[in-house]
Amino acid sequence: MRKVVVTGLGLVTPLGIGVRRAWQRLLDGHCGIVSIKERGPQFTGLPSQVAGIVPEGSKVDAKWNAREWLEPGDERKMARFAQYAMVASEEALEDAGWAPKTEEDLISTGVYMGSGIGSLDDVYDTTVAFENGGYRKVSPLFVPRLLINLAAGHVSMRFGFKGPNHAATTACTTGAHSIGDAARLIQFGDADVMVAGGAESCIHPLAISGFCRARSLATDWNDNPTAASRPFDRARAGFVIGEGAGVVVLEEMEHAKRRGARIYAELAGYGLSSDAYHMTAPREDGQGPYLAMKKALRHAGLKPQSVDYINAHATSTNLGDAAENRAIKDLLLGEDGKSDPMYINVSSTKGAIGHLLGAAGSVEAIFTILALHHDTLPPTLNLQNPGDPAADFDCNYVAHEAQQAEVNVAMSNSFGFGGTNASLCFTKL
């Protein structure tokens, strides 16, 4: 099986646009979660009034202004999630130094870009327009903007990539599945290079209403937004919706070495599983996450004791954080594992950016790669009192401040509604 490495990274996040900006602000303890009360009257009556928003402003300040980041016509043709995917892809490709021109290279380069929900704004606005004005009020760009695979399509068209053109939509596991599936396309020889990741932008009253009705969102911190996302904390009470995109350039290892590319990490293992349990709630015993992580390590040929860091899915929900904590401990302790929970390094970067839904897995995979590359564990914000009386939260959760540690093996977890789970295992070469 061919080996797959990471040679490029691109980010659009609530901490800012660009890998360097987002990573540094994450390590410095900044939080990108803000109040959304002022976004309009439809937001003021919602139970949850906080979100992880990509900051708007000048490009020179690493903030979002579509006219500065996109080419003419892109804003009209692309939904917001696809715009984020394009910007993150451009950064990742530039970072990788991959700008193929020959037909052979273009054919061997593909795109795998997913989204969990896609353009809910277009669905809502067009439905209202059609209800009020009929057929002629529907834009001819409605369907192209709506389709989730158009993010991958636009990236392929922009750069002329003629390899696999694919999209995943597996709720909050989308970004991780996109990266893992893209790696397998390289392993099986369908491509030498893949641009892979997830993108999401659905900070919309309808989406927030739906998640609130499902009792998923944090509602107790509307007047203190930066404290709302509290992974592993005893006071956690729901996730904070966020938006953004994370894109990696994956490459067959020998291909990357031949062209002298900088290699961040090897994607050594990829595990998938299903809870087979409930539409929205996880199994309390954490069996699904446990199986995904176990399979990722098996594919990597590694023992649990070798894992130096886990970037947890931990969204700040009572059931989810406890189940994942149990799964991590079940896997990493005991035979072939760690001797004590204190040696398990695990953090959730959702305290800083919220839950980016379909983009979460890819953004967090990039944070995991950077943790490995820089030997630095990113912090879990708002972790005042770990755990709850029903679970043992006694690992090192990297509370509040980043920590320096040797990281040779790191894992990134993502889980989604429908009980779908994925785990990515990265290693240093």
From TrEMBL:
InterPro entries: 3-oxoacyl-ACP_synth-2 (IPR017568), Beta-ketoacyl_synthase (IPR000794), Ketoacyl_synth_AS (IPR018201), Ketoacyl_synth_C (IPR014031), Ketoacyl_synth_N (IPR014030), PKS_Beta-ketoAc_synthase_dom (IPR020841), Thiolase-like (IPR016039). The keyword rRNA processing does not apply. It holds the Pfam family ketoacyl-synt. It comes from the Eukaryota. Pathway: Lipid metabolism; fatty acid biosynthesis. The keyword Lipid metabolism applies. The active site is at C172. Residues 1-428 form the Ketosynthase family 3 (KS3) domain. Keywords: Acyltransferase, Fatty acid biosynthesis, Fatty acid metabolism, Lipid biosynthesis, Lipid metabolism, Transferase. GO terms for molecular function: 3-oxoacyl-[acyl-carrier-protein] synthase activity. GO terms for cellular component: mitochondrion. One of its GO terms (biological process) is fatty acid biosynthetic process. PROSITE patterns: KS3_1, KS3_2. Belongs to the thiolase-like superfamily. Beta-ketoacyl-ACP synthases family. PANTHER family: 3-OXOACYL-[ACYL-CARRIER-PROTEIN] SYNTHASE, MITOCHONDRIAL, POLYKETIDE SYNTHASE-RELATED. This is 3-oxoacyl-[acyl-carrier-protein] synthase.
